[in-house]
Amino acid sequence: MDFTSLCTVVAVVGILSNKSQFFLHDSATLSCVDNKNSSDWRIKRNTTNIKNNECSSTWGKRSGSNCLIDAVYLFDSGQYWCESGTGACSEVINVTVTDGPVILESPALPVAEGEAVILRCIHNKASSFNLTQFYKDGLLIGNSSAGTVTIRDVSRSDEGLYKCNITGAGESPESWLSVRGSKPDSFRFHPTNLFLPVVAICLLFASAMLLYHWRNLKAKVDDDVSYTDVTFPQKVLPKTNAEIPSEPTLYSTIKPGAC
């Protein structure tokens, strides 16, 4: 049963150097952090032998919200989390202690989508080693002569069990890489989120100003033009002979010898 379903997750449990695998007799420091910087946190764990066991002198040293383990043993492998007296808690991280010669350094805490994850293969005796192979869910994903591999722009598909093998030295235990969804873009700040609205407002303002000046100019031109009523006479066509009234013709009779 997932005990975190019984409490409210409001804190984060962290491990110094953020790794989940340790060599035998390594030291480990765990701490609890919340947004109020409260010290009312206790670190607990589930191991093979004991469940819901609080950090105490039997396996660690408590200092505020921290727990220091001077030397880890195989029985320290298990689940660790933070818990408060009010029922709040953190998510669980898995810790693995090995007596083998090789460990895989990978994030103990979930990583966000889009981040870069570095996996590092470490030998407990040598700082330099031979070719290293990295595996995810049992499948080879890469080789490195430097002992590291980087997963760029991590996504949910990168979740899984990872391990490494150093040629001629040995293989590490497996560790689970957890990937969380990134925050929605509405919660991210991008320069374009601010730039685009400003440009839109400027264009709108410029359009309004141009329309205002155009209307003023049109009104001014209309005021400068004067109009006069002009009556155009109807065009008169010349009359024909048929249309001119004729004067009456007088006739007289001239007698011969009258002159």
TrEMBL record:
Disulfide bond keyword on record: yes
Domain Ig-like: 101-178
Entries under InterPro entries matching the protein: Ig-like_dom (IPR007110), Ig-like_dom_sf (IPR036179), Ig-like_fold (IPR013783), Ig_Fc_receptor (IPR050488), Ig_sub (IPR003599), Ig_sub2 (IPR003598)
Source organism per UniProt: Crenichthys baileyi (White River springfish)
Taxonomic lineage from the root: Eukaryota, Metazoa, Chordata, Craniata, Vertebrata
Lyase is among the record's keywords: no
UniProt protein name: Ig-like domain-containing protein
GO cellular component entries: external side of plasma membrane
Residue intervals passing through the bilayer: 194-212
